[in-house]
Amino acid sequence: MKANVDCDLCTGCGLCEETCPEVFDLGPDGCARVIAEDPVPTMYGDIRDAADLCPTGAISIKAG
Fold first, then answer.
1. Cβ(17)–Cβ(25) under 8 Å?
2. What are the tens digits of pLDDT across the range 5-60?
3. Nearest residue to 24 via CA among 6, 3, 53
């Protein structure tokens, strides 16, 4: 599973970082960043939750 953050949509609210800090980090520019390019399967649920909670839909997920 690969997560991606669209900085054009991200408002920097931090919900993704709160939900899954092992994968997401809020950058100095206010955009969330993916810090774990190859997350372990035990994180998949939290990654999905972060994407679902994102108020702007800035997080996309691809299988792989």
1. yes
2. 999 999 999 999 999 999 999 999 999 999 998 999 999 999 999 999 999 999 99
3. 3
pLDDT at 64: 72
3-state secondary structure of 50: helix
The pairing of beta strand 59-62 with beta strand 24-26 = unpaired
CA separation for the pair 1, 30 (Å, rounded): 24
**Facing residues of 59 across strands?**
5
Dihedral sign for Cα atoms in the order 13, 25, 58, 51: negative
At 27, which amino acid appears? Answer: G
- pLDDT, residue 39, reads 95
**Cα–Cα dist 12/32, whole Å:** 6
